[in-house]
Design a protein that fits this description.
Layout lengths: L4 H12 L7 E2 H7 L6 H10 L11 E2 L16 H7 L5 E2 L2 E2 L2 H4 L3 H4 L5
Parallel strand pairs: 1-2
Antiparallel strand pairs: 3-4
This protein binds a DNA duplex (13 and 13 nucleotides) through α2, α3 and β2.
DNA sequence: CCCCTGACACTGG
DNA sequence: TCCAGTGCCAGGG
């Protein structure tokens, strides 16, 4: 595997720290890792996160709160089900009250990593 | 090595 | 939180 896994691991580290019932965005994670313009890479990392059972990929959405990645889950609406099971309201692939449950790594996480 | 694609974000309209 | 266009980095063919 490529050395880029290092970047992937960082993404996983942050993703794993997302609290129950909260969500964050690809861009937020990317920015936290010092790669603000590499939000796509976060998505790519999530793609590979299927090997990691501990990664709550369903808690990561785009900046609008849209479940753009639901397509990559087993079921058509599995991602939504997972979020709803955490008390997150989802309508038409969009997280309701997104700004309220949004989890900002900069605010909630210490400056490690 | 070149070209396309991708679970995104930003800017201008 | 529209829409279209552009930039970004990395992987795969």
């Amino acid at each position: 595997m490529p050395k880029s896994e290092n970047f992937f691991e960082k993404v996983y580290e942050v993703a794993k720290k997302i609290p129950f019932g909260r969500v964050t965005s690809y861009g937020a994670i990317a920015k936290y890792l010092g790669a603000a313009r590499s939000a796509r890479m976060v998505g790519w990392a999530m793609n590979a996160s299927h090997n990691n059972q501990e990664i709550p990929a369903h808690r990561v959405v785009n900046r609008k709160g849209l479940l753009t990645g639901k397509h990559h889950f087993d079921g058509t609406n599995l991602m939504q089900q997972l979020l709803e099971s955490e008390g997150i309201e989802v309508v038409e692939n969009q997280i309701q009250n997104f700004s309220a449950i949004f989890w900002d790594p900069f605010k909630e996480l210490p400056n490690n990593l």
